[in-house]
Amino acid sequence: MSVVPAEVLPGGARAVQSTAPAAAELGPRARLWPALVAVYRAQLSRARVARIPLLFVATFQSVGILIMMRGVVDGGSEAEAVVAGSAVLVVAFVALNLLAQYFGQLRASGGLDHYATLPVPPAAVVLGAAGAYASFTVPGTVVTAVFGCVLFGLPLTHLWVLLAVIPLAGAALSGLGAAFGLLAPRPELATLLGQLGMSAALLLGVLPADRMPEVVRLARDLLPSTYGVEALARTFGPHPDWAFVLGDLAVCAGVGVVSLAVATWAYRRAAVR
Q: What is the pTM of this model?
């Protein structure tokens, strides 16, 4: 048997190259908005059954705090702070506590590897999960706010401001909760951080600020949920100062953008490890 080099054959090199299979091209990466909607729907359907009992616990907890504080606070600005803080506490329970637990367990179980293989932007994963968890806070927050207004004799006229308070405060706290879960080295630590954050929202958001020491007030100003509480509490007066309400909501929006950006960076960092 004789071996003939491929170079001496007519068009030998070209013939060899033409038989090599072409590299398969990857599909285009999904755009942010369609990917976000897909992740949001998937998370919403996945968490609906498991999270409804926990949402009931969050609402029951806030209603119990209102009943307890009714024996201490009679009315005025202190009652406004208690009602607003108890309503926003439902958002903090879900956005901080539950979302930190979810991302902590997702990282520990290797679930981030599944999302890393999908052609979706990291921001869509974080925003979709945060939006789904924040959606569960709407019924409990509304029920708590209405019950508190009836209990303390506050007007229900401007409760429509919850349409802005819930998503903006939810975004700020969801980004923080997601960052806790993604940056914590162990799921137990993520759960601890989420519970500590919720406890801070409880102690610093529900109790009237006038009765707090100066150092505690400074810590209260650093908590993102404080500005959602202040925005809601200002609307209970007979003549709300809407400039201050919009200012508080703007702070919530700014903190939400920063915290969600940090959570997106934490997701990228955790997904490549």
A: 0.82
